[in-house]
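=== Discrete structure encoding ===
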Amino acid sequence: MKSYSFSPIKSENELLDAITYTHFVCFELCKQTLGKYLSVAGNIGIFCHYDDEYQFLTKLLEQLIDNSDSLFKKYFRLHKPIVIPARGEVPETTYTYLYIRKPDPYRHHVGDVDFILKEDEYRELKESLQSGEAIKGARVFERSDPDMVELYDPDVDALGYVRTKNT
């Protein structure tokens, strides 16, 4: 039996703990990979690993979100944004959208965060990766919609994504 850092999440407090954890781990992943902290897009995802956990979190989500306002048809606007206070160099951050991913027992990740780059900086990053430049912990995301660069580390149980504001 595989053990996951936060799953199964069984309360709103545990969900907030997983969100806070994902936030800080993703910021460190961003700094480790790109050498700096980027601004967030305002959305955060939490990944389920069990069917019961997914059922609980989707019911909880109904109380926390506006179903009519979604980003990429999977992130839903929170009635009350989640504000994570600054810690060290990591700035205070506000998340306005939340996503709960269906169970995937083959992926150990707790969640993900989307970071934003200016169009020209993003294009330069993506083109450098596509031309074969190795940036440890960065790769072009396999799907093209949305167009993103994935930040990863096999020893880290969260993922970061870099995109433009318009993606």
User: Anything to note?
Assistant: The chain has one domain: 12-163. DSSP finds three helices and eight strands in the chain.
